[in-house]
């Protein structure tokens, strides 16, 4: 038996999946630190210490990890949860808007991972859990850039896992489908709207809102994180909800043309 309490760090822990994951890890016996861009010094919620961090800022990430190691001495689990969404036709977003989304969803993961890896390497142990999405392995019309960030996280995570596995570290993906969070309300819209896309974009917003309303609670995703952290023989990809597991299988078993037709119907796109 180990004689220390393992330490977990969860980014974007002020609400939704991040907050529920932090609570679930605490219940599983971890000392948990969460991050929020607006956290004040010494803040805590339900026994979870909240620390300020902006994952799009190198200095902020470095300061966070330094502070955490000073407080806890180690980092056993990093959950890269902080991120954002964008509902827009690909053509409706400027390159600057695309860069901002990638900076948060992809480079934020890379910044946090690069900051934590030296600590885990020195420990010869650790798990990095990246919150992906089903749109990391299926198309998502009118969120092409968001899907692109999640595809990037998928490729990065799976490749990195092979690089660090012999160092006692695993990098694992949690892939939720629609979850009952405020993602749709917090999603960014296009920065250069085009009327030609209005009808179908608005239909897509409706699909997202309905799917999130009837989706799984974030506690389900949090449970998948705890399972991945504790699994002695973890899987690289972990579809986290019933819908995610169904899509994971369908994407592999259903012929491409049939999958394409079904997706367009579900997303209320013209045949």
TrEMBL record:
<dbReference type="Pfam" id="PF00106">
    <property type="entry name" value="adh_short"/>
</dbReference>
<protein>
    <submittedName>
        <fullName>Short-subunit dehydrogenase</fullName>
    </submittedName>
</protein>
<comment type="similarity">
    <text>Belongs to the short-chain dehydrogenases/reductases (SDR) family.</text>
</comment>
<dbReference type="InterPro" id="IPR036291">
    <property type="entry name" value="NAD(P)-bd_dom_sf"/>
</dbReference>
<keyword id="KW-0560">Oxidoreductase</keyword>
<dbReference type="GO" id="GO:0016491">
    <property type="term" value="F:oxidoreductase activity"/>
</dbReference>
<dbReference type="InterPro" id="IPR002347">
    <property type="entry name" value="SDR_fam"/>
</dbReference>
């Amino acid at each position: 038996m180990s004689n220390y309490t393992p330490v977990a760090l969860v980014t974007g822990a002020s609400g939704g999946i991040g907050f529920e994951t932090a609570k679930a890890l605490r219940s599983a016996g971890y000392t948990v630190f969460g991050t929020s861009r607006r956290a004040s010094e010494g803040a805590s919620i339900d026994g979870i210490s909240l620390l300020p961090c902006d994952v799009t800022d190198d200095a902020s990430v470095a300061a966070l990890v330094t502070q955490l190691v000073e407080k806890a001495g180690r980092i056993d689990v990093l959950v890269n949860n902080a991120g954002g969404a964008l509902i827009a036709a690909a053509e409706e977003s400027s390159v600057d808007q695309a860069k901002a989304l990638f900076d948060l969803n992809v480079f934020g993961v890379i910044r946090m991972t690069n900051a934590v890896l030296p600590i885990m390497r020195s420990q010869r142990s650790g798990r990095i859990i990246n919150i992906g999405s089903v749109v990391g392995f299926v198309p998502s019309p009118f969120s092409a850039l968001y899907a692109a960030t999640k595809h990037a996280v998928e490729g990065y995570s799976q490749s990195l896992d092979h690089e660090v596995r012999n160092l006692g570290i695993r990098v694992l993906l949690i892939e939720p489908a629609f979850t009952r969070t405020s993602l749709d309300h917090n999603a960014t819209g296009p920065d250069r709207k085009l009327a030609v896309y209005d009808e179908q974009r608005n239909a897509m917003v409706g699909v997202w809102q309905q799917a999130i309303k009837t989706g799984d609670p974030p506690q389900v995703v949090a449970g998948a994180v705890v399972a991945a952290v504790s699994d002695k023989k973890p899987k690289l990809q972990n579809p986290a909800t019933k819908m995610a597991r169904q899509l994971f299988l369908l994407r592999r078993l259903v012929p491409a043309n049939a999958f394409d037709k079904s997706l367009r119907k579900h997303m209320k796109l013209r045949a």
